[in-house]
Design brief:
The chain has 15 helices and 2 strands. It has about 300 residues and is mainly alpha-helical. The chain has a two-stranded antiparallel sheet with strand order 1-2. Strand 1 and strand 2 form a beta hairpin. Helix 8 packs antiparallel against helix 9 and helix 10 runs parallel beside helix 15. The longest helix has 30 residues.
Amino acid sequence: MDFAGIYSRYSLMIEAVLNELAPELAQPELAQPGLSLREDVLARSLHYVVSGGGKRLRPVLALAVCDLVGGDLEVAVMPAAAVELIHTYSLVHDDLPCMDDDDMRRDKPTAHKVFGEAVALLTGDALLTFAFEVLARTEDLPPEVRVCLVREVAEAAGRKGMVLGQVLDMCYTEAAADLADGEGSWLERLERMHGLKTGKLLRAAARVGALCGGCTPEQLALVTRYAEMVGLAFQIQDDLLDEVGDSSQLGKNTGGDARLGKLTYVSLLGLDEAMGQRDNALAEAGRALDSFGHRADFLRDLADFIAARKR
């Protein structure tokens, strides 16, 4: 099966589980901006954001790594979906007016535009906590593995990971106009910030897949390195797309980074050097998979897909 076919197979597994996780949200009425509050508003908002499509990159990565180490995909698919729930929560909160203030996400209005800021905030909270409920109740895994998964995901998403990265993003946005202490220092800060904000959850997704698949310590270390480099390439490509991408293809507005004065790889290095940094990260990701041989071909293609994506 080719790359697109394998990606589709993984994605369909994830979509099926996401639908199973929220049966009460099966088919809400069409959400429209300005609807008055009702008791089912949380259910409708959750369905709206979870069924919003997207690349499902993180859970696909988890399933691909589980496959790589010889694991059972049916065992890994629930924890993989939990990682997607956390990613979706982060998008809902990112889009809020107090953060990036975005109006569009995945080709439709963002949650706060449809349901209001308070409901969008609570929707993100619900997704975050539900993700850990899902991890904890994955009964096909031994209790000690479930505990390990909870810790991996919590550290990636919380005060040592994604949330800290968001805080640094705000701090660096405030200071981005002052580069007096030199480009090198700012590049180190940028790499750290995105390693936390974007890289940690991608890293966790790969490690979740490996742990669900019964990996060896050596395999875990290699897929972790791969995911860290893929995370770096992913963020640089995001910065490039925000600068030169097509909003009709992206499914969201472009130019937001410049509008908010954000520190990005493009603003710091320029387009050409940013692309070079992305390509270096992809090459390093590929080297991490050398010992797996042809079994890792999908993951190599996944890294290339990240670099070539238009959305």
